[in-house]
Amino acid sequence: MSLVMDGVIAISGNENINVSLDQSRFRNYVIKATASTPFVALEMSNRSLLIKGVSNPQNPVDFYDKIDKMLAYYLVEGSNSISVNFSLDYFNTGSARCLYLLMAQLREFKENGMSVQANWYYKIDDEDMLLSGKNFSSYSQLELKLQPTSPMKYY
Q1: Sign of CA dihedral 4, 23, 114, 63
Q2: Rounded CA separation 17/34 (Å)
Q3: Taking every annotated instance into account, which residue ranges of this chain make up the domain SiaC family regulatory phosphoprotein (predicted)?
């Protein structure tokens, strides 16, 4: 079920986005996180896309198709720049393929004149996530800025 309030469309993890929505009504798109899917937010006002959390959906192609549709809405708005922030704690193999395809799509946007800034956030002590960011950047040929973050401290 989706919820629309104050220019935000919130989409549950299993709902499709209707591509015929009136573009002028919505400024932000949000997919709420679940135990197996990341939080996703496309904020039109600051031209940013955030994918954060765990990406282990049962059907990653369906999940990431929603993000592709969100980006299609964004492009219809005539935006010529975007900042994409990946901050994943875990992703499965199916998600890796979808993330790669998303990054390859962003690279194509950049090659066609859009300003694309992509950041890969990883916990400073998570060498696997750092290596994943390097590999995604290399394979997709999209420059990812590798951004270390402090690990959560428990007292």
Answers
A1: positive
A2: 17
A3: 31-147
Domains in the chain: ranges and CATH: 2-149 (3.30.750)
**Single-letter code of the amino acid located at 41:** A
What pTM does this model have?
0.81
Instruction: Please give the Cα distance from 138 to 116 (Å, whole number).
Output: 16
The full 3-state SS of 44-107, as one line of letters, equals CCCCEEEEEEEECCCCHHHHHHHHHHHHHHHHHCCCCEEEEEEEEEEECHHHHHHHHHHHHHHH
Read off the pLDDT of residues 83-131 as tens digits, 9 standing for 90 and up.
Answer: 999 999 999 999 999 999 999 999 999 998 899 999 999 999 999 999 9
pLDDT at 152: 61
